[in-house]
Amino acid sequence: MKTATVETNRPPPRSVDLPTLLAGGWVLLMLFTALAAPLMAPYEITSIDLRHRLAPPVGFGGTMLHVLGTDDLGRDVASRLFYSIRTSLLVAFGATAISVLVGTGIGFIAAYFRGLVEHALLLMIDVQASLPFLIVALAMLACFGNSLTLFVALMGLYGWERNARLARGLAITASAQGYASATRQLGAHPLRVYLRHILPNSAATLLVGATVTFPEIVLVESGLSFLGLGVQPPMTSLGVMVAAGREYITRASWMLLAPSLVIVITAVAVSVLGDWLRDKLDPTLK
Amino acid sequence: MSAVFRFAGPKVLRAGLSILIVVTFTFVVLRASGDPALQILGPSARAPDLEAFRRHWGLDQPLYVQYVRYVLAALHCDFGNSMLAGKPALQLVFERVPLTLALMLPALALTMLIGIPVGAYAAMHRDTWVDRSVMMLTVFGFTVPSFVLGLLLILIFSVTLGLFPSGGADRPESFVLPVLTLGLGGAAIIARFTRSAMIEVLSQLYIVAASAKGVTWRQVVRHHAFPNAIIPVLTLFGLMLGGQVAGAVLVESVFGWPGIGQLLVVSVANRDLAVVQVILLLVALTMTSANLLMDLLYGVFDPRLRGTNSGSQ
Amino acid sequence: MTLLRLNNITRRFPLGSPLYGPRKYLVAVDGVSLDVEMGRTTGIVGESGCGKSTTGRIALGLEPPDSGGVLFQGLPLPRIDSKKWRAQRRQMQLVFQDTLAALDRRMTVSALIAEPLAIHGIGDPASRKQRVAELLHGVGLGEGHGMLYPHQLSGGQRQRVVLARALAPKPSLLVCDEPVSALDLSVQAQIVNLLMDLQQELGLGLLFISHDLRVVRHVSDRIVVMYLGRVVEQGRADAIIDQPAHPYTQALVSAMPRLPGGFDHYVALPGEPPSPTDRPCGCPFHPRCPLARDVCRQSLPELLPLGPERQVACHLVRH
Q: Which spans are transmembrane here (chain B) (predicted)?
């Protein structure tokens, strides 16, 4: 998704075009689903119905009983899909919050101390940026084992280096601007300068950064869950559903297709929306 | 000579430091994750056995001694045995290297072979319907995660059409789908990047000047625009490689490809730490050397950077 | 009584990378000494790049001198960013040129003026509110202005806000760095007069920095003329204006429009001020000096007394 920022020659969109509108609608639908999953789901995600195992969706010979069909244990695919969206988005939401907080903290510390501290932090940022996050995440899962709290914390490490770079840049720019040094010379504690002045002035750009981090975390989470090393049963997430569907790819492709399509459409939608948001909110992020 | 050293020296030093940071990180995570004696001997081990184990492996020493020993062991490529296989972890990993490379190298080639021409073509036909549809396709290319793409390809080409096998590594046809899965995402990124780079170069003044001299458009593109656009594309190589490594883990898992990625997944699931740390360090070493190489090559391609940029990062 | 004393301060900035070869330095301030008396104004005048702003920042303790000392109320300044240093900010405040950048655009005028009170824990919220109202009134703004944001104000109004903010903790020293240069002439006069009224009222010591001798002359009791980081002449304001001794001061004074007669003895200075990175040897002013001799090209003139309270650094002036 980094390359979405490479585009430089496109004129800024004047009004919202159709793809952006569709993308926005889809993302809203996903957010709504995440919030309202318990209300929307017709079945419990664990309720097993062995008489209706691998029932196809409506339109492929299925009945309205299970709109998106059922899985190998007769569990309702639609219900599981809603809850999966909920889990995936919640995990990504918590992780994005952690990533932005950690990144901003480290970026501000680097900007404040300069010198050796800054060089050390920049080196760590470079190291993290050069390593594929999936590998680091797998290594840490191997060492610490898996629980939901740990998993969210681990996902929160995703993209910290990018957020830290962003925050450091913003803090350095802000410090060079008058208001930060003006407040410092009033006798304010550095914490006050950073939290009361630099942070509020950087918040908009940091939020745009978060909109880039969020969908990427959804993808990493579903990847790890697909490998069986992320979200663990009885909870379900999009990756968990894809992994389960893969076993029945020949006999019940809907088990695979339903979560896959959600992942694909969400990823594309967020990318389209992110481009729009970047152009709209913060032309400097390019 | 000293100019070369001035240019390369800090970069090599930085790369070395990066590796040391990863080794340190591994040490910290390993120590933080629990008592190795308990982990290896199991919770039912007797106290004297645990004591003996700790003494034998130097776990009763102060932490910094353990750290120095760990770094020295890493320098000697001594990472201990795999718990699962009972073989040295290093040997286990290197047995799998050729298979993973057999996936990654063709995929990287595919990335370049598709991405660069498509991007260049789109740039030269900028704002036509060809350009727009290519750009739309690339959005799918780099947003769809590789495991989903792989499974969709299996669904289409194996299950529905029956053209290629859905897994295994035994026949030449087995390569087609995994390589395609691994290469397509990267190709989309390269295509977008090449397009931007080409558009930028094409709009620059010297290209305008060259075409004013009565040279044909084709010659301008071949001799001026393309060589200049390709340099920034090559620097993407480091990023691409990282994506390929992460992608390989998922793709190998989708296609049951017995490479390093699958070994990593199995080792993580069984908490076979010796193997996991070898793979982590191997990846770090590969990525750092690739980035270093790209940095140095960039200096060769673009001599302006050698003088001015040597000190800063 | 002396409020602030700069004693032979020097400030240089390293150029280029620290790793390779011998380092070069930009000497911004070179052996500057000056005093600010309580309730009085010392003006620094000079072209851009002469080191006057750096001198102001060192005087405030915002950056340390490389050599020489700063005494505030007879005591050396505490270490920068230490707790003591922060507490001392209450007594020494800065007024700057770029008011739009200096005010956080997300805060209202009232919040901005109240901030120094909150930082130094002066008063409770109710009394702070009252003090803000007093201050707004004191700088000629209404209470309605307190609800506005900086970008909703004119340049002159913003300068008043900056002034109110600086005065809020009741400082004894105010350093004004080009406080009116960005303003229209008519507004300049208002702000300068306000500043002088407030000084009378509060007994502030002022260090007033400007490139504009006209303004400096209007506010200052003493004037310090700087050229390329060095003091070339200093003395009482009227003496400097009436009988400038240094050729550079003469040029500045002659360029100053006066009501009767206009530019009668205008001495035009050839060329730009040389860059502080490669200062000429000898007297730094000699390449532009209409009277330069051989001695000016070879040796640096010292700052020597010329009558009471007056010092000049020029080979051609008989001390």
A: 12-30, 99-122, 134-163, 175-194, 229-255, 275-298
